[in-house]
Amino acid sequence: MIRHIVMWKFRPGTEAEQEQFLSGLAALQGVIPQLLKCEVVRSVGEGNYDAALISEFESLDALEQYKADPRHKAVSALCKSIRTDRAAVDYEL
Fewer C-beta within 10 Å: the chain N or C terminus? Predict the structure, then answer.
């Protein structure tokens, strides 16, 4: 089992796009079969990353299939247009 955690910082003035991205990302659970668990959260603190994804996959191969899925790519494209920074970590459970 693989846990995949991603965090983003967003450009100011993109609040509507942020909401669209985060809700679109959360909506992928139950749609992309490789995505076993998905939690999308917003930070409540100042000076931190703005949002994070905590997700789980059966294997690294399943994670790569998820990343290659056109539905994930569409959501990811929106994120790339509004983010200023991204950090990620994948680890075995």
Answer: C
